[in-house]
């Protein structure tokens, strides 16, 4: 969704190998309506204020891209980029998304979303963006539930260089720990910790969204 003034980009990370759910790739798994998980995740993001939207691909990139485009209700078509070094860890996938967001000078920050967290709703995304844009001098925004942080995380553009410099498979965990005392917080529900990365959890996902 476009808007006047500074914007917050969305980066959806969808490059992992999904080894814990082999042979099924979790992002291709259907919900109760038949919609693939990656498309369900993107439905909420495309309906939000986030702009532009980038999906970072890697393992089984062509299949994930096709699945991501199956939702006729999606608010916009995302830009797809492939992280050539995605096998080196989550940090490289994140860096590919941050580089894409950095190319837009009007972007004040980036909301980093995980492709396997389809329960995250548009309302939470918009609330995080609104909170950040009201206080753009802060390092970002994190959602909280029962005193614990979760995903997605919104990062200020000021931290893009630090995000690009990350290495390994830990993502931005250490960077978040360094800045968490000054990060803005938004109250959220248990969905901020609900991922689907085991066969049992995929069975749970297959029963989600029975109302469409």
What does this protein structure show overall?
Residues 10-180 form the MobA-like NTP transferase domain. It holds the Pfam family NTP_transf_3. This is Nucleotidyltransferase family protein. This protein is α/β, with parallel strands linked by helices and 212 residues long. It has a single domain (7-205), classed as Spore Coat Polysaccharide Biosynthesis Protein SpsA, Chain A, CATH 3.90.550. Helices cover 30% and strands 19% of the residues. The protein contains seven helices and eight strands; from the N terminus they run E-H-E-H-E-H-E-H-E-E-E-H-H-E-H. It has helices at 37-46, 61-68, 90-102, 122-134, 160-164, 173-179, 199-205; strands at residues 7-14, 53-57, 79-82, 107-114, 140-145, 148-149, 153-156, 184-187. Strands 1, 2, 3, 4, 5, 6, 7 and 8 form an eight-stranded mixed β-sheet that branches. A hairpin with a 2-residue loop joins strand 5 and strand 6.
